Amino acid sequence: MIKRDVLNSRGLSELKKRRRRAFLNKALIYLFVLLVVVAFATYLSRLAGLNIKTVEAGGNNIVDTENIRAVTEREISGKYLWLFPKTNVLFYPKSAIRRSLASAYPRLKDIELRVKSGGALLISVTEREPLYTWCGENMPETETAEKQICYFLDKDGYVFDEAPYFSGDVYFKFYGAFGVVPLYPKGSYFAREYFVGLAAFKDAASALGLEPSALYLKDDLDAELYLHSTSTTKPKILIKANADMVALAANLEVALQTEPLKTRFQKERRALEYLDLRFENKVYSKFSTQ
Question: pLDDT tens-digit profile of 202-254?
């Protein structure tokens, strides 16, 4: 009985050893196959025909092509896991390139990437169109010779680039800190929720011949639309940024065509101080007595 148990114990031990050797052999085979696959994949990923050779840019007018190329080449330099080149056309970092270009050059609106035959990576961009300027969080009290630092805005109120100095009212100006980081405004939206409506009301005022030149938006959503004037007064239209701009424009047009405001506005326009449209279906006016 004891002899049989000893034999069984020896047999069990040998069986365990054989199983361990078999497992180790399989693991080594799998590891070898994995290394072969990785080596082969690495070789394929580095083939010249599968890698980006040059970077081209198209659609840019203001942003320099060399700057676009430099940002892109920085993103595709190096390797994934120290093995696979980022220049490979199958898995080059598209999202990282878009993010870096948009961050470095907010003027770029749409960024499309495509690898052409011959290994050229084409960066097709659309630049934002400057329609307005944002000139600070506070409306200046008086017109001075001091130059203002202004930034371009597109149709959605996106702040994308510093504007050169313009004399006169080349671009309509917006003021206020609503949604903008004053110290570094580029890449932010001015009054994003209300901007399109404010711009539309400005256009409606222009269509009525009122010559708006600037708009100041306060934190409480009170907005002051300033009108061009050769007098000492600074005539303005008072509105609420969250109001129905279509209705406001209609109320303003009706008021300017209705007596007694119609005649007084025509005769005393230089004396106008403000038109107040902040109250529903009402237009209040004030003219200076000088």
Answer: 999 999 999 999 999 999 999 999 999 877 788 999 999 999 999 999 999 99
Task: Tell me the three state secondary structure of residue 209.
Answer: coil
Residue identified by tokens 């007018």 is 61
What is the residue-wise DSSP string for 24-67?
A: HHHHHHHHHHHHHHHHHHHHHHT-GGGB--EEEEES-SSS-HHH
Rounded CA-CA distance 231/269 in Å is 9
Distance CA 126, CA 107 (A): 9
The span from the CA of 179 to the CA of 276, in Å, is: 25
Let me know whether 274 and 142 are in one domain. yes
Query: What is the C-alpha R_g of the chain?
Result: 34
Strand 172-175 versus strand 159-162 pairing type: unpaired
- Which residues form the domain of 56? 50-127
In a domain, 24, yes or no: no
The structure's pTM equals: 0.80
Pair (174, 240) in one structural domain = yes
CB half-sphere exposure, 94, CA atoms < 13 A? 11
pLDDT per position as a tens digit, 61-81: 999 999 999 999 999 999 999
197 and 241 Cβ atoms separated by less than 8 Å: yes
Q: Does 102 map to a domain?
A: yes
Q: In terms of domains, do 142 and 122 share one? A: no
pLDDT value of position 16? 80
